[in-house]
Amino acid sequence: MVAGDDGTDRQGEAMARAREALRTYFGYDSFRPGQEEVISSILSGRDVLAVMPTGAGKSICYQIPAVLLGGLTLVVSPLISLMGDQVRSLKEAGIRGSYLNSTLTPRQQEVVMARAMAGWYDIMYVAPERLSDQRFIAFAQQVRVPLVAVDEAHCVSQWGQDFRPAYRGIPAFVNQLPWRPVVCALTATATARVRQDVSRLLDLRHPAIQVNGFDRPNLRLSSFELTPKDRTRWLLGYLAAHPTWSGIVYATTRKKVDELAEALRAGGITAVSYHAGMENAERGASQEAFVRDEARVMVATNAFGMGIDKSDVRFVVNCGLPLSLEEYYQEAGRAGRDGEPAECYLLWSRGDIRTCHFFIDNTEFPPETPQAERKMLLRNRERLLSAMIGYAMGESCLRARVLRYFGQDASSLGEGDGSSGCGGCSVCLGTSADEYLRATRPRRAFGALGAKGSYRTRELPSETEVTDEDERLFQRLRALRKQLADEYHVLPYMIFSDATLRAMMRRRPANVEELLEVPGVGRAKLQRYGDAFLEEVNR
């Protein structure tokens, strides 16, 4: 730090407060890669475009500034159904949050806005369509809005996989406020072209660009060519081999979702379905059962997943070919959000390629879309599909393919230089689908029980040997978490992640002070749940 440089001094002080807030609210001593850079830019008053993979902790990038900046931070989120969960997660951390959407009656909406104007909240979640509502605009003009965070910002671009026209109205809303807030755009998957689109269409002003590495070393990537019939056999074998794991199975059509879910239930697996053909109440019940650990497997179309914050998903299986590598990697990235090892499988067939071409050929466009633009968009979707097919059929390192696609240097993986490559994908490991097409005995993590009653997971920097006693304690802590979640009417992951429970398992905290040192244990959660977990650890 340069002595006498007031600007540098103030920024250093701001980041010191940010690190203290991280410790207080979330229980972590240091930021994950990219978080500090984004937060520093926001606190200095600069717009930001942050591209960070699923599980990198994008939410903290606006939650920490929200509590430090004062006023009301607005978070634009595409999924109304998840706003309640997001607010409950904030409450568990000790942060004052609210949401404003169509699930609230007009009277309830008035109450929320009145409380916001009275300073009750730090953060408010809204859908992009809300920003064009004149009543909401009038409300926003009466409160101080220091920050507008745009989640899933790729939705603004027609070149992204989740285009949502209402996102285009965000700049107009921002320009109607008495003073322009900082705008922070966040997304998990965006190519260089989409990043340019996001920056331009959201009218970001001289933004700081933070593109984190897309590599997720805790994920094992696998791609196998299997017939639809063999996919079901494979799934049953895989689930039998991992009886305690929770995960997501994606299928390309509603019919296939229902068929797979029924086959799993017939095989004794607690599985639920999720697709657009179901009633809202049915989908809500399925989602609730899955995130509450009452259903082990979610079988869904790509309608499920964006914004889902269940951290202990140990596997994601795609039964069928997604239309783009962006879509696939976003779905696969829902595994292992807690940083613990997880597995991602792509099960595909040549027939899937024909199905994808059919979907593209039958793309529906708004009537006003010019013919030239339609042709250009169709060509782009064919290009995206070609990259997806290349990944599925590829005979070189899958991890390297992902990194190169998103414009990241993959040379550090050793792919192509005669070494063993990344050591964490089916190509580099030389694995096949046969392991789960035949009868398998249960195994744990990525290894099997050894002669001394211990096992070692796939080599990761954070992994240590886990004994049977350790594993029993971990399962007791998970059971306690589920019990407390039911008692407090929250979702299990909102209490502690699997990673935090494993840290408790390893450290064996003996008192409150030691428990507070466990990563993921903030002061609000310590006060609410600390005694129960200490008792379980030490009994």
Mean of the pLDDT scores? 86
Gross geometry: globular
Report strand order across the widest sheet: 3-4-2-5-6-1-7
* CATH H-tier superfamily of the largest domain: P-loop containing nucleotide triphosphate hydrolases
User: How many independent structural domains?
Assistant: 3
The total strand number stands at: 15
Task: Describe the protein in words.
The chain is of the alpha/beta class and 539 residues long. It has 3 domains: 6-211, Rossmann fold; 219-434, Rossmann fold, CATH 3.40.50; 466-538, DNA polymerase, domain 1. Helices cover 45% and strands 12% of the residues. It contains 22 helices and 15 strands. It has helices spanning 6-26, 35-43, 58-69, 83-93, 106-117, 134-140, 170-175, 192-201, 228-241, 254-266, 280-291, 325-332, 350-361, 371-393, 398-405, 426-429, 434-437, 468-488, 492-495, 498-507, 512-516, 523-538, and strands spanning 48-51, 73-76, 97-100, 123-126, 147-150, 182-187, 208-211, 219-225, 247-251, 271-274, 297-300, 315-319, 342-348, 454-455, 466-467. The strands form 3 sheets. It has a 7-stranded parallel β-sheet, with helices on both faces. The chain starts with 5 loop residues before the first helix and ends with a helix. Mean pLDDT is 86; it is low at 439-463.
